[in-house]
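Subject: complex prediction, re-run

Hi both,

The earlier run crashed halfway through, so I resubmitted it with identical inputs.
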Amino acid sequence: MENIKDKVAIIGMGCTKFGELWNKGPYDLIVDACYEAFDDAGIESKDIQAAWFASLVSGFTGSRLSNALKLEYKPITRVENFCSGGLHALSNACYAVASGFCDIALACGVEKLKDRASGFAMVNPEPMDSSKVIPETPPANMFAQIAISYFQRHGWDIEEGRRVLAQISVKSHHNGTLSPKAHLQHEIRVEDVLKAPMIVYPLGLYDCCGLSDGAAAAIITRADIAKDFRNDYVLIKGFGFCSGAGQALLQDDYDFLHIPENIAAARVAYEQAGIKEPREEINIAQVHDCFSIHELILYEELGFSPKGKAKEDVEAGTFALDGDLPVNTDGGLKCFGHPLSATGLRMTYEIYKQLQENTGPRQVKNARIGLVHNAGGMIGSFNASVAIFGKRD
Amino acid sequence: MVGIINCGAYIPFWRLSRRALRDGLTGEKAIAGFDEDSITMAVAATLDCLNGIDRQAVDGLFFSSTTSPYKEKLGATIVATAADLRRDIITADFSNSLRAGTISLRAAIDAVKSGSAKQVLVVAADCRLGAPGSNWESSLGDGAAAFLIGASEVIAEVEAIHSICNEMMDIWRTEDDRFMRSSDSRFVASEGYSRVSREAIAGILKSSNLKAEDFNKAVFGLPDSKAQVALAKAMGFDVKTHLQDSLSSWVGDTGAAYSFILLQAALENAKENDRVLWLNYGNGSDAISLRVTDRIINWPKKKVISRYFESKNTIEDYRVYARWRGLLPSERPSPCLGIAAPPALWREVEGNIRLYGVKCNVCHTIQYPPQAVCTKCHAKDQFEKVRLSDKKGRLVTYSIDYVNWSLEMPTITAVVNFEGGGRIQCLMSEAKGEELKLDMPVTMSFRKLDFREGINIYSWKCIPARY
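This time it finished cleanly. Structure:
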């Protein structure tokens, strides 16, 4: 099996401001993100040879993308993998370029969630649950189940656990203040987190990311011609994708302490990128902090912290902007909100800009290898994605 | 000797303080939770009755209620399926009268006597609604009870039945009525239950050649305590020693289930050879003479009703009850969760209603819902069915949702491991957040998950283990 490492490069990216964009529809968001990417790559829309378009609720079929951009009779595929959709659009574009199917490909993810009060709740798992007996477990419930298990099986009381999680949200909110495109740009204190209204016990308001609108896009080309577009292109070092088969609920020994899909996806991506010691070799990471507990367990799942020891690293500030391994440097889902299919490409945008040393006050020094992680789905049926990016030599 | 082999009952965990209805009222009444109805309560009573009994031996199920959630569609088939009875049984709904339960019991006895069935389960459940502010709202309660009827190993033999048919407009609901209607209460009492009950009792005494003093217990399914006492006095029974208490202080008049519940309460402290006069009323009357057998001595269900007395959560706020019954408009958003597809409900009936999981014949892993390919060893189509509804469970983890749109707030999701293997993710009902602990024991309870587009979506939730 061939490896994607160093075969393709990102030569341009765009990302809208994320937030409650009442005056923007999905087409506006697509146009804003893609035209920023075109300008960044120094190309025009007619240069796009193929495209992958990720959306859960804002687009059926690839034609939504071509309608917005007026791509004329190009092959466009809609990609949907819940919260992982954006990275899947990116990877499909990369694999297409690597295979020789095309030389310049577009990956775009968009989600317009704020036209409905219930966000994405209208998406029904038909026909897998046509009888409607599967309990509605909105995502906060699944991660609360993990938090309850993680706290109690580590011998923490709820208060102690909530304090650990609060530090993660405080860190992300600080980073968000340095991030002009973030939805939320204000500092919070641990006390604010602990006093905030309960959403799903034990997760309070500040343990949860928001719902927002947004879009992001990337232009992909072959690594060997990338320098024709720009010098500071960013290379794909590895992808790892993994879908659960329901094991966590079908088998009675899963302990809700970790998400096996995350671990499996990271293993594949690290293998492709040749990463043996992720804590040492990865310089910056954007991980799927839909809920603070997910970021906590991801530190362990991605090999940043030893199993059961993430708390020590949180308290040591390891993942802060000036720590050993800065995580969610732009404020993460916590501050950007989570327009599902746009998120993976928004996180990639941050890594891309960081590796180009183009992120102003939140710039991480000497970053050469960056990681993006998404996971979407349900307990036992997550679709986890890990992408590794690197600076050109 | 045809009679009652076993009893089962269900009094809802929820009680409404009558003070919430009107200042000066006392006591409580049992009310079905927002996720319960006559079907789910009937299932609970049926499972209680069949606990420790071979379900394969049950040849019929009769469901009695004046509040079946469907006007057209059997409730008995839902109850029988949830109780995991055989398919080749007789099922019927008895309705439209508070006498439905005793009428179905008579039919069951006739079926057993005729030899068309060996054992028939009769279950009655009701949750009638009184108009806000009415006396009905205070007196009616919700509940269910079941009897297994057969010809051997009975705890009480049915010696005689005497029925009266009486046409009058005393208590009724039309097709469009949500609330009870009744005519002048003096008329209802004097020309209704007083006269007709006496007529039925006189009839059975005469045909059995018995007198009041031959009976050790009197169980009268009349609308309230006062009526029961008046009848007892009129017929020469000693109220203190003979008359079964009305349970109105904590249960209320549970409609078609009321006479069943009262008889079971009376059987709790019955002795061998006790003779019970059991009367039920509704457009006529059924008087039934029962003789308690020696099997009552070792009968394990001596608390069939009373164990529910302390097992409760009392609601003091009328708004909660009113919202549960749809008497108050609510701001419930439309989350577009989709309708339940009848073909899917039909093809998944074993997983959803019988709560079957499957056990892999190769690696023995029990998994729910039923699968085609084994989650562990990947063997295809090599499963046997395993009923999980009666398995004890332990809480693996949970969440408490404060922003959901459910009528029970907060909403608890649970992951449960079954004793002997298998796991389910489900909603948890009737739990208080502070009592939740990992590994705590839970049991499965049949509930109405939702009502969408004319379809009641039934399946199972877990509840804290109580008995």
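The first strand of chain B starts at residue 3 and ends at 10.

- K.
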